[in-house]
User: Fold these one by one.
Assistant:
Number 1:
Amino acid sequence: MHTRGGVLRTSGDGPVEAPEPRPTRLPLVVHVLALGTFLMLTTEFVVAGLLPEIAGDLGVGVARSGLLITVFAVGMIVGAPLMAMLTLRLPPRWTLTLALGVFAAGHVVVALGSSFALLLAARFVTALATGAFWAVANVAAARAAGPAASSRALGLVGAGGMLANVIGVPLGAFAGQLLGWRGPFWALAVLAAAAGWLIARTVGRDGAHHHAVSVRSELTALRSGRLWLVLAACATTTGGVLAAYSYIAPLLTGRAGIAAGLVPLVLVGFGVGALAGSLLGGRLGDTRPHATIIAAAAGSSALLLAICLLAGFAAPAVALIAVLGFFGLGANPVLISLAVRYAGQAPTLASAFSVSAFNFGTAVGSWIAGHALDSALGTTGPAVVGTALAALTLIPATALARTQRHRAAPPVL
């Protein structure tokens, strides 16, 4: 007999629920959604490698041109829940296709624009579309894969974003140096249009059905205490890792003695680790989600502490940063999966808030780390901040595990 979460089998004590067998292959739509997240994360971080060229062309300072990154992060924090609510009654295929269309149009505006204010506005609107895409893509991927493989599907969607740090961002920066900084934005616009066409052809066909719910029903998800624990873990785990990662270049050049030209290769190592961690974390999260989160938080804290202590030695520092990518971002698909699960009949808003929580943690962690960099701690300051934030993840992660254990415990007769 089938139930909502599995199959009923009988034993000597009566019927018990057995989990559904995990599918060997994920639906095509999950891979297409991963392509979308690859484009989204590429555009978020590719600007970092093009700031001098943008600043010189527009006649602004490099520090001011950095606002193109800041405004995108703010747009993601605000845009994910806002756009998720505004597009709630639209079928997922429409929302995803529309988001990619706005994403492509925003990049065309950036590629053609000559006003810095116009570029800031275009980046903000693009971030709103990115937030809408990411929130709905998580739900669509989880539904297409089914409960038995939802974390694995989210791991693949998240891996598309991790792959951006390995391929998309370095390739975009290299292309910008060869063809001018506007070239990567033209390329992203074309790729987004192609991804929108693929989304329109695959989401409905692969069975990501639309379940119409009201705004009021979605807002009831915010009453879940477990959901807020998940969101807290989203903010602290990502905030801790990216607080250190955002200022890893001064640490590598100032303390470890690594040449500035080799820093991008170290960052690629971090990206490869993050990609592997996202894929493996997604697989483990389907069977042992809470253990995966706790292990990732503990591993990240230990690695960041080791970076603080061994930053003066080049080889250990490089190795630790690569492994940090594996542990530091490996739990993200599991956290998104739990947020969607604990939201019950209102998964879209929960997915959107998880995206906002990741970006909120990144913004706050990086801000604190910047102040630590100017303190007496110097170049190790951001890693110290990251260690503390990552360790805080153990609090909500342990609380979630204890809550789950109490719910699973048999009643006392």
Note: The chain has two domains: 26-212, 213-407.
Number 2:
Amino acid sequence: MRQKSEVKVLRMKSRRVLLVLLFVFGFYYLTTHMWHTGSVSALVGRIAPNLASTTANAPLGAFELTEAHAQPAYDTEEQNNIAVYKRVLPSVVNITSTAVAFDFFYGAVPQQGQGSGFVLDKQGLILTNNHVIENAQRVEVQLWDKHKYKAQIVNVDKAHDLALLKINAPNLVPVELASSSGLQVGQKVFAIGNPFGLSGTMTRGIISAIRSVRGPAGGGIEDAIQTDAAINPGNSGGPLMNSRGQVIGINTMIASNNGVDQSAGIGFAIPMNTARAVLDDIAKYGHVRRPTLAFLPLEIGPDLADQIGLPSDYGLLVQRVYPGGAAEIAGLKGGTQKAYLGNTPVMLGGDLIVAINGTEVTSMQDVSSVMNSHKAGDTVTVTVFRAKKRMEIKVTLTDAKDQQTTV
């Protein structure tokens, strides 16, 4: 029996030695043959079907990279982002404007500016900002397919910082316009344009606020759309869109940080309803019928009101009414006494406008805001002080075209 036990123990030891030898041989074969032939990658692929392993050789030696076999599925939000970009990109254009300046020796020096715009119809009408093409001798439009066309300036509205261009190009893809009424803070928006010359760039954000701001030319933009979607130089004139890719505004300016001309997370767009009104005027009359009261104002503050002896410490003093304009027709009175503010001649003694349609007027910006929400032919109620008497006068707004003032 003892002999049988010794034989059994010997067999078990032999098996262990054999298993160790098999393991060593297998490891040697794997590291010297399969590692370089990709068999390990195949093995990994069987274990994790969505992963693949590749070997990279580098000065520091070989190392393994694990990669996905296939692109993962896009989530719902990503799918919408991609769909909006693909649908709108063919409608967005890059605009290059060339102006001529003169150097110290009066030599002509071409200067170029860049911006964005978007196609309104298949006939080639394109909307952009006025400041993108202002003072340009030549305007060129590049489509998404890199084809370039010379553009004609059809009309401009400096007060609203809008410009209408036209190109002769085939197979144009117009944008889809949406009303800017009823927009909500927190609503998702997209911007596509040409920031810093990087064409076809899309950014995303939300509507941060709806507020009135002063535009690039100094005029007021009523109900401007404030957004945190990144807007930079070159985005001007491009579309601001809702989550369905419909245009709700025209990107026009940013709030710069310490004079640095780049996005600080606060950008502004002209609401589409304002642009529609401008386009309607151009279509009907050939120009923008910007309404006006047609008078020359003098802004009044508390100190000046006290010096002159006015009954209100704020308002706009009517220095002069323009012949045939709304103020003259309605019976507003201009000044009759010549005086000086420093070296500036002014006319005193006219009506003091303190409100329009019940809203206080403290500056020309306030009047501009009222004009932006009306059109020529509308009637407004103007509250004035004539001497010490408070009066309300109905004024029918006239067309600012060919008049000397825009207030």
Note: The chain has a mean pLDDT of 83.
Number 3:
Amino acid sequence: MSDLLRTPLFPLYSQYEGVRCIDFGGWELPVQFSGIQKEHEAVRERAGLFDVSHMGEFTVTGEQAEAFLQHMTTNDVTVIAPGQAQYTLMCYPDGGVVDDLLIYKLAEQHYMLVVNASNIDKDWAWLQEHLTPGVILTNASEQTALLALQGPLAVEILSKVTGTHTDTGSIEPFRFVQDAHVCGVKLLLSRTGYTGEDGFELYVSAEQAALVWNGLMEAGADLGLVPAGLGARDTLRFEAKLPLYGQELSPTISPLEAGLGMFVKLNTGPFIGHEALLQQKNDGPDRKLVGIEVLERGIPRPHYPIYADGVQIGEVTTGTQSPTLKRNLGLALIDARHAALGTPLEIEIRGKKLKAEVVRTPFHKRTRTSKTPSQGAEQA
């Protein structure tokens, strides 16, 4: 896999005996370090540390930066203040999704966009195609590493290695500190998450990423912190019903079909895709993303067909045996007329149609004792 891209942390992977890397969108990334089940449980119960440095980071500056992003994305950029992050989407004119992303407001008319790794080139080209005077775009992806510390003990672990001027526990959901000091390194520290648990993201220069990774792993050793790979990242986000681009979102799946209408502000100024999405909302989406449970022995996988009354009405977008719940669950995009809770369905698995039904989502929702993140972008 020598022709694949590697993150600045790749040289550290070999120190973990059970690590297994795969080709993920052109990147050589760890699917697991010690086992997906073990890593999943660690994040739910203690904490896990993810290398997500393959993500893309763009900066948007200039006197027209806010207006440009308001035109390019579906959420309302004007409501966020410096130090605040926002989940949003970029759409095509027909309402299909270019990408889902996070916008960080660093200062007035100064933003950072965090985009999905497999979409970096496409997103960059899309933004450049619509660039207007008074806006400067910079691609900082290669210079930026990104670590994600996730789990109920994330605050305790991070507080061990954070400078005294930064109280990690006081950072609100979807807020960030630009000049936090972690493991003696100055970085941007945010609190969003893509696992359904509490957690932080650490945006650090590529050259200093290994120092921060090793410092966090040492600080969390006595609290059960483990390195976690893409496998656990996928099962965790799936249980929390957080979308993955290419599965729950795509050029042919709109935000409204995916249940992300709260991030589509149709009452603000027009953005690309506004007209199509307004029409879709007024008419009601023909399709809807729902949770399903297979009631017989069988695990749902992406693209498995879903039937109602003998007619195919959609397909699975993501599915697995839930590591937390030990149930065979899936997300499926189906005909909206069959989306009510409890609706009996059938799923075709290896040529056999098995009984299934529509169930409530998210499949896992942690008990919150204080304000915590509720929605993240793919960021994988």
Note: The first helix runs from residue 36 to 45.
Number 4:
Amino acid sequence: MEEEHSGGVRRRWLVDVARWHPSPAQFQAAAALLPPHHRHAIARFVKEEDRKRALISRLLQYSLVHRVLGIPIHQIDIRRTIEGKPYLENGPPAFRNFNFNTSHQGDYVSIASELLCLVGLDIVCISKPQGETTVEFLKNFSSYLTVHEWDCIGRAAGSIGMLAEFYRYWCLKEAFVKAVGAGVGFGLHRLEFHHVEWSNISVYIDGIKSKKWRFCLFKLDEMHLASIAKGHPEDAIHSFKTTLSNVVVEEEEFYAALEIPEETFTLQTVEQLTQLYS
């Protein structure tokens, strides 16, 4: 059953939040579709743009679970680990390791899901630093990247090139951390990425090259990048691992899932996300 459904479970959706300009009544109507604890979490954001991204992120989660697994909206139970990793509490047994991840930054909110592999997603906006030079800005992150990564950034052409190179590394590191379910305490310096013109991307974890992870970078537009990380369920941290039905998978089955080529994101509108509730 898993092989039959694996293509349908694996989704990559993207919403251009900058194109959505709801009135206060429209925003409240969309938020009212979610359970109360999600509405309360959204209301805690001070800035309107942050509230929009938070709302769409949660609508994406419910919409994806409903469309992929066929669970009625009112029966979907999405919770979070102590580190903040969202997961489906009541998934069907056949979809033993179904997991998803969301990200929002700048103009976009996105979601990715997998049936067997862990999946992490991150979006970054390549924006020029305000009130400081590019070099000064990058120094703020000196402890998070390795010597090799900083050397690659330093060889980039000009300040824009250096920023773009930095954000690629940052995006990949964040996708990995989100895939395993770790929180802000994870040492990003433990990860070192190697690549060939940003393809054939590999990761070294604590100095050891991992064969259990695959990464892909996407250029959403001139200012936004997205990354997808896929890896073995046994690498999930404890709190997230307990939400998976079976972290012990056959090697052949795992690598077959890991090597499925990445596809581009499918654009969704807020109207598409909310129509499921009508």
Note: The chain has ten helices and twelve strands.
